Amino acid sequence: MGRRDESPAAARPPGTRVSPAPSRCTDHGRGRGTAHRRTAAGRGLAAAHRDVARQPAALARRLPRGHRLMLVLGIETCTPSSSVCLANENGLLAGAALGRGNAHGEFVVPAIDFCLRQARLPMDAVAGIAVSLGPGLFTGMRVGIATAQMLGHARRLPVVGLNSLDLLAFPVRHARRMVCSVLDAKRGELFWAFYRSAPGGVQRVTEFRVGPPPKLAGEIEAVRDDVLCIGDGALAQRALVESTGAEVGSSSMAYPTAQSLVELALPRFIREETQRPEDLRPIYIRKADARINWQNRGALHGGRSAAPARGA
Description:
25% strand; 10 helices; Nucleotidyltransferase, domain 5; alpha+beta
C-alpha cells in the first residue's frame, strides 16, 4: 500500500465506484439544501462530543498557525454500500464505494490501495484511521474493525470509532425537523435513533433502538414535531413510515459514508481523543448478535468462549 508510480486512473477494485461529484442533501419538502463542495468552506468539519455531532466551520479557523493538515483514512463497512476515503481538514482527497453487496472482505484493502493511488500518497502519509463500529451487518462490522486494528497496529496509528446511525444523520444536519436514522437490522427488525439539529450539527436525543417496524412507527407517532426518516430501513418500510405522517428521505441518504465518518472523526484526532486499535468494539445493540459473535470465537478456540466485553 505504499506509493506507486501507476497513473491515478489505475484499475479500481471490482464492484467499486469513485466517490461521485458533490451531491445535495435537502430537507425534503422545505426546499432547503446544502451542496457538498470540495472546499473547506463548503464541506466544513465536525466536532463530536458524545451524543453531539457538530460541523463547525469555525474549527478550521481555530487550528493553530502552522498546523499540518491531518490525513485520515475512513472505513465504513457496516452496510451493503461500504465505502473508503482519504480526507483532511480541507476535504475529500479520494474515495471508493461498493455499489451494493456483501463482499466487504474483498473490497476494503483494494479500495484503500485505490484511494492512495488516486491521491498519489503513500500509506506513510496517513496519520489516523476512522472506522464505523455499527450497528449494521455482522460480517461488515468485523471486516472494518479488523482492518482498522491491523493497520493501526502495523503503522502505530491512532484510531477513532464512531457509530453508523450518527454518521447517517450527519449529512442532513440542516434539516429543521426531527431526523430519524433507520437501518435494516435483518431478521425482520430495524435499528434506529432520533436526532435534532444542533449548532453546526446534530444531537442524538434517544438511545439506540432495535425492534420490529411497528415499534418504530409507534415512536414516530409519539413525536410531536415533523419527522424525516432516512436510511435503507426507512426506504424498506416506506408505506408504514409515511402512514405515521413522517417523510422518507431519498435513496441518496440510504447509507452512512466514509466521508461523513472522517468529517466527524477529524476533530477527535486534532484533540487527541483517540483510541488504541485493540480497544475498538463493535456496537451490536441486539444482544443476540453479541452472543453469536462470542460463540463463534469460542468455536474457533476449542469450544471455549469468554463473556462479551462491556460495551460490546
